[in-house]
Amino acid sequence: MAGEDTVESAGPDEAVGQDASPARRSRLGRAARWAIGIVVGLVAVVLLALAALNSPIGKRFIVDRIAEVAPASGLHIEIGRIEGDIYRRATLHDVVLSDPKGQFLTVPVTELDWRPLNWLWSGLDVRQLVARRGTLLRTPELLPGDPDAPMLPDFDIRVDRLELENFRVARGVVDDSEHRVDLSAKADIRDGHVFLDAGGQLGQRDTVRLLVDAEPDGDRFDLELDYRAPLGGVIAGLAGADAGYRARITGDGTWSQWRGAMLVERENERFAAFRLTNRAGRYGIVGQATPAPLLQGPVADLLTGPVSLAAFGTLQDSVLDGELALRARGIVGDARGAVDLADNAFDDFAFDVRVAEATPMADTRVEGARIAATLDGAFRDLSIGHRIVLDRFVSGTTEARGLVQEGTATFDGVRWTLPLDLRAQQLMVGNDLIDPRLVRGRLSGELAYSGTRIVADDLRLVFPDASARFSVRGETRTGAYALAGPVALRGLRIDNIGAASGNAKVLFKIADGVPWSLRANFAGRIADVSNATLANLAGPTIGFRGGVNMGGAGPIVFRDLTVDSQKLQLALDGEVREGTTTVAGQGTHTEYGPFTVEAGLDGEGPRAALVFADPFPAAGLEDVRVAIAPSEDGFLIDTQGGSMLGAFDGELELLMPAGGPTRIAIDRLDVWETRVQGDLMLGDEGVSGNLALAGGGLDGTIALAPRAGGQAFDIDIDGRNARFGGDTPIAIGRADIEGTGLLADGNTTIEGKMTAQGLQYGTLFFSRLTADAQLRNGEGDANVAFTGRRGSRLGMQIDAEFASERIAVAARGFFAGRRISMPRRAVLLAQDTGGWALQPTQVGYGDGIAIASGRFGGTGPTSLELKMSQMPLSLADAVVQDLGLGGTISGVVDFGADESGLPTGSARVQVDGLTRSGMVLTSRPVDLSLVARLGADQLETRAVIDEGNERRGRLQGRISGLPATGALFDRLRAGSLAAQLRYAGPADALWRLAAIDTFDLTGGLSVAANVTGTLADPQVRGSLASDNLRLRSGLSGTDVTEVSARGDFAGARLRLTRFAGKTAGGGTVSGSGTVTLQDLGERGPQMDLRIAARNASLLNANGLTATVTGPLRIVSNGVGGTIAGRLLVNRASWSLGMMDEVQDMPQIKTREINTPADFGPRAAPSAPWRYLIDARAPSRVDVDGMGLDSEWSADVRVRGTTDDPRIGGEAEVVRGEYTFAGASFELTRGQIEFDETGPIDPRLDIRAETERDGLDVIVQVQGNAMQPEISFSSSPALPEEEILARLLFGGSITDLSATDALQLGAAVASLRGGGGLDPINQLRSAIGLDRLRIVGPDPALDRGTAVAVGKNFGRRFYAEIITDGQGYSATEVEFRVTSWLSLLASVSTIGRESVRAEISRDY
Q: Which of 110, 350, 575, 663 could form a disulfide with 557, with the two C-beta atoms 3.0–4.6 Å apart?
């Protein structure tokens, strides 16, 4: 078998090869089948997907995806549904187009016939697109599109039919009507061929027709346009145009040679006309246009009038390459280069623009501007090399010249970056001082622009004497720009002032339609002031800081401007508006104190008003106002204020007429009641003129005149009863002042003398003073002698010698019987600082001494050291009248003040036997040890009080945080207080130190208090207690014993929670109240005390006693007060005899005339208190003495003040009798009515009756108490002369002698005329005696009721006879040797004779 042989004969390798070939073919077949399957599967999937998209679900998917598309322009498309084949013919229903603000177009039906798959190989292929019945709801507002999108499409476009059929423009879009729109178009754009044919009707009048047909290969080119858009049409309404336009393009030719023209008309007038050409793809446009009506702002200004334009270039493969030239009245420009419209790129596109003059923003101007730049690169990766030149730039009052900016700007698609390298030849800001220094400036940095924002950080501006670093922010959409950063100025030389350096932080803003504004905060320093006047006023170095605001339309405003120097601190605000400068502020000066200033400068000249609060404390000047205003030939000067002499007010004028001498006319300068008037001529040789003083007790002249090559003055002033109205009383009884002086060739000669009487300054009073001085160039001598008020026993003699740098003073005198002496002269040596140094100087008074030394005056520090040993405190009476201090003081007091004027110091003193004496009482001696230390910002003190060998009290305190300015007393009142007070001892030791004689307080007292707060408003915590006080008043006779009191402190208030005491007869007094310690020093303590009295005997003096029950309230504000109460008078008495004895020295209203000038003034009375008391006494008001024994009832109201008390109400007699001349009268009627509306002068109605020798006598007193009418009547009726004869002489008038009868007639006439309530004194005056009184019986002398009659014989001799008519008589004789020494002798019938001397003294 052949077949078998063949197989078997084969080798092993051949067998294997035969088996492998079919296996390989099998594997390749399987791979091919898999690949074909995958491709087929993918195709199937694609086909299935395409088929699925054409299904209802797929169409819904397409609709949803279209709705989700969000292009950069903000266009949003929504489709209601799709019907038909999406790959060929389809119908779109309810198509809605929206922009970011919402829907703007709706289309109910759109028919589409297209070939979407052709996009893969031939571009856009639309056979038909017809939209029907669409509605334009509003004008769309789309955002800028994708900047990377090509400007021209880079794909083929085929649109066979595009129609908008029966579209509507809704009402309100154009006007109140709907408008129909029908448009149609056909397009075929592919490589080598462009065909576009479009046209339509918009509304009734608007039409558009456009034809473009270009095919280079077919040498075909055609371009036609017919555009009609009249005013009021659809297109004008949609575009917001304010005019109608007509545009036409026509031409003829082929691709290789085509010529045409374009004409644009605006409201039937030519708007633009251009010649159009195409020469084988090189296009050209040449012509003119007038675009200004379409433009506004700076661009409209540049393109005003006809604008010529010429442009030539090619457009090939979307690349526009050519050149352009523009010529207008305000701008000239040229450009050359290429722009790739498909790839959005520049290729060496260069332009050069020149502007002669422009106004880019309000209040700004540009002159001679040129911009040369080259653009290269893609639109989103662009570089711009440039050079910008500005000959002149003006903004408001700021001007820059010679500006040059060079560099290469870049754009990365989002952000523009401009490296700045700006140079300026000169910058002028309108300041003659700064402008010359703002030259050769340079601005460097980097400016970035993104979107509409401009940002720049770390810009640097450098000038030779100034530099700045700042940031810039801008918004091109609104035209708003801002610049901020620091500015530094170095070594600015200010003529006649010095070199200034400083820095500022500046914020500059500008925006379209908004004036520019500049806000700056600055600080600087003038290191070395070269002006001597300014340096003397402010100091060698002046620092300043503040802020300034200015703008294109607003004023220049200075805010928070401060000046700080060694002598002056000033804060100002001001503005410059419409050529007028005004400033206002306040400050303080080391020499003139705080002040305010208001000033202005306008076309008429400067105006200013300065008010100094305390410019010269030594003269008491305060609230001094000086106002300056321009006048016709100079300046008017008004001044007013207060001084130690009182208020002053003046009107002056500085006259500087052209060609005439300068003159100061003092129309008036009133100082209190004295007027100064005169004219002063300011000539080359000096000042001449006379000043006259008149009024207010002064009369004289001050004469100024050139003399002997210098300036001379002569003073001649007389003072007579001059009074001044300052806070401190100043008065001159009599004074004569003469002086003369000459200032010539650097030499000064002054001579003067003064004699005066009755000089008063505050508590100081000199009864007589003489002084004279002769000085030449500060060398010479002066002598002063003075005595104190009459009776003060003060006399001093002071001699002083003046040398160029040395003053020596010697003083001697006496006070209160003790010598005042100086073992050696006091020497003052001049210091380099301008002050004086007092060498150790000893003053002795009595057994005490004091040694003083120190420095004062000038610019250096002030210091004083005072050492005392056993110096009597009574010396204080020489300064403060009737101070009454006793004891001695020893210790050391150090005081100092640095250049700032803040005082510092320390004190370690011991006061031994400290007492104070009043009119009646003297305090118990105590010893006081005090240690105090005053620093710049705090005061510390410790003190202890000892009585005998017992410690009674201690005080320790600290006042911290003292203000850095102000008087020491005011600073102490404002500091933080922390103090402790402990006292346990007799109350009178403290009470009598106050020298209050109205009432006295004795007994034990315990006080513990901790004080915080301030002296002006202390906050006290502590307690007050006593169990055995006694309160007595010698004035009212009040005596309250066993007084217990409890109180505590709360803040500045002492609360007396309870006090109670007893009075004679078992009465009691109790109550509570508060005492406020706030503002002590300015006023006394404020109090509100509520008191309850029960049968309390509160009055027992001068023959008056009263026991009352009821409430009392005492209220005081620290200056005056009110005493109120509603009282029941339990019992009262009035002993007329005792009152008569007290009234031996009556208080008589007098008016002194021709008082010697050396008599000191009397102390002014204290402030009056008000009464508000209602008192009711049903009975038991006893009035006894002087023959009267009666009981009264009363219901009265006490009103008015202590100076002017008023009483209202009435009193009625209950019972009583009156004994006169041995006859007893019974009071049958008595009524007294008080009227509180006037001074106390009650109306009387009193009747008394008696029977004598068968005669009924009636006496009646009627009328007012100051002028009563007293009448006598009888039954049977007798004449008054007869009645008085029987009462006085015991017999009929017919039995009287002729002398007795005359005196009796005069007595009757006096009684009828009215002369007061006291008939005895009326009779005394009527019968010519100096004294007539009834003397009570005295059994020891065997004397009955007697009559005493007395008579003065001349001014020195007085005799008195006393007789009872029953055998007793006595005679007394007085001879007055002096006003205080008298000799008295007496002889009586009982054998008593005496002679004695009597010394009396009034206090």
A: 575
Q: Which tokens hold the place of 1013?
A: 């707060």
CA distance 253 to 259: 6
- For the chain, first and last CA: distance in Å? 187
Helix (H, G, I), strand (E, B) or coil at 594: strand
Q: Is 1139 exposed, middle or buried (0-12, 13-18, 19+ CB in 10 A)?
A: middle
CB of 645 within 8 A of CB of 620? yes
Give the side-chain half-sphere CA count within 13 A for 1222. 15
Pull the structure tokens for residue 444.
Answer: 């460097």
3-class secondary structure, 118: helix
Pairing of β 938-947 and β 950-960 = antiparallel
Under 8 Å CB-to-CB from 134, ≥6 apart: which residues? 105, 106, 107, 108, 164, 167, 168
Contact 57, 86 (CB under 8 A): no
- Other Cβ atoms closer than 10 A to 307: 20
Which secondary structure element, helix H or strand E, spans residue 1202, and what is its range? Answer: none
- How far is 609 from 622, CA to CA, in rounded Å? 15
Length of the chain equals 1403
Question: 625: which 2 tokens?
Answer: 């106002």
The predicted pLDDT at position 1345 comes to: 63
The answer to whether 112 and 87 are in contact (CB under 8 A) is: no
**Residue for token digits 């595009």?**
162
In this prediction, residue 1312 carries a pLDDT of: 55
Residue among 1290, 1310, 1304 at smallest CA distance from 1223: 1290
Which residue numbers in the chain have pLDDT < 50? 1-20, 1137-1148, 1163-1165, 1299, 1314-1317, 1403
Structural contact between residues 481 and 500, judged by C-beta atoms closer than 8 angstroms = no
Q: Residue 940: which residues within 8 A CB-CB, separation 6 or more?
A: 932, 933, 957, 958
- Spatial CA neighbour of 1366 closest among 1333, 1338, 1391: 1338
The first and second tokens of residue 738, run together, are 């003469």
Half-sphere exposure of 885 (CA within 13 A, CB side): 18
- In the chain, the amino acid numbered 927 is D
CB-based contact 103:96 (threshold 8 Å): yes
Residue 1317 is predicted with a pLDDT of: 47
540 within 8 A of 556, measured Cβ to Cβ: no
Under 8 Å between Cβ of 469 and 458? yes
**Distance of alpha carbon 1399 from alpha carbon 1383, whole angstroms:** 9
CA 1361 – CA 1344 distance, rounded (Å): 15
Written as six digits, the tokens of 1025 are 């207690």
Residue with tokens 């109306």: 1243
Give the pLDDT confidence score for residue 10 in this predicted structure. 39
What are the residue ranges spanned by the domains of the chain? 492-578, 902-1101, 1329-1403
Give ∠ CA 721-723-726 in degrees, rounded to 5. Answer: 165
Q: Rounded to whole angstroms, how far apart are CA atoms 449 and 476? A: 9
CA–CA gap between residue 14 and residue 36 (Å, rounded): 34
DSSP for 1122-1181? Answer: EEEEEEEEEEEEEEHHHHHHHTTS--------S--TTSPPPPPPPPPEEEEEEEEEEEEE
Give one word for 216, left, alpha or beta, with left for phi > 0 and alpha for psi -120 to 50.
alpha
- 854/843 Cα distance (integer angstroms): 15
φ/ψ region of 720 (left if φ > 0, alpha if ψ in -120 to 50, else beta) reads beta
Partnered with residue 145 across adjacent β-strands are: none
What are 322's two structure tokens?
């050519």
For residues 903 and 934, the answer to whether their CB atoms sit within 8 Å is yes
- pTM as predicted: 0.51
Q: Which residue type is seen at 55?
A: S
